[in-house]
Amino acid sequence: MDFLELARSRYSVRDYDARPVEQDKIDRILEAARVAPTGANRQPQRLYVLRSEDALGRIRAATRMAFNAPLVIIVCACVEEAWHNQRETLMRGTTCDTYNVAEMDASIVCDHMQLAATELGLGTLWVRGYDTQAILDAFEFPEGVVPICILDVGYPSETAHPSKMHADRKPLSETVVEW
Ligand SMILES: Cc1cc2nc3c(=O)[nH]c(=O)nc-3n(C[C@H](O)[C@H](O)[C@H](O)COP(=O)(O)O)c2cc1C
């Protein structure tokens, strides 16, 4: 599969088969995360791999967005470890007083994992629509480690299908400006 075929074949899966994800596939997904680029190569990501009944029960109680995925990865970042610039406020119009790339780094890591999982025939869902406090209450992350997003992973159920949004992409003329 070439890259565009792979990217097009990915869609958000919200219903999974009970079949567990094999260890070699998990290893490959995590290796894709490991080689992802990060700002100044700081590698602030911290990945919490939830597979046990206990951990999956806790994440499902904290957010309905874990659906019935047999594998959930909480993508966190050690924010202080991420590249940041104290002197310059680049986030114009926001209340940020520093510029920190932790979210970007974690997002690149998550995207690498999502596409690696797709290549392995797995379905995924990128999740940010959760209550951060509920996740913090459910798991004891070390000080300074912040959940950025969640990746649900598993084999799609027999009836899983792309939502209408999957086909709804703006034309390049609306999102690309040539200067
Ligand atoms: C940053 C981000 C956050 C998202 N959060 C959620 C979420 O909380 N719940 C959900 O069901 N889907 C979530 N999604 C999935 C998007 O809704 C989905 O990617 C988009 O509608 C396009 O559909 P497709 O992934 O099937 O192509 C999220 C995706 C991204 C990239």
3D architecture notes:
The chain is an alpha+beta fold and 179 residues long. The chain has one domain: NADH Oxidase, CATH 3.40.109. It contains seven helices and six strands; from the N terminus they run ααβαβββαβαβαα. The protein has helices spanning 3-9, 23-34, 53-62, 102-119, 132-138, 164-167, 172-175, and strands spanning 45-50, 71-78, 84-85, 99-100, 123-127, 145-154. The strands form two sheets. The chain has a four-stranded antiparallel sheet, sandwiched between helices. It starts with a helix and ends with a helix.
Topology, pairings included?
Layout: H1 3-9, H2 23-34, E1 45-50, H3 53-62, E2 71-78, E3 84-85, E4 99-100, H4 102-119, E5 123-127, H5 132-138, E6 145-154, H6 164-167, H7 172-175
Antiparallel strand pairs: 1-2, 2-6, 3-4, 5-6
Helix pairs in contact: 2-4, 3-5
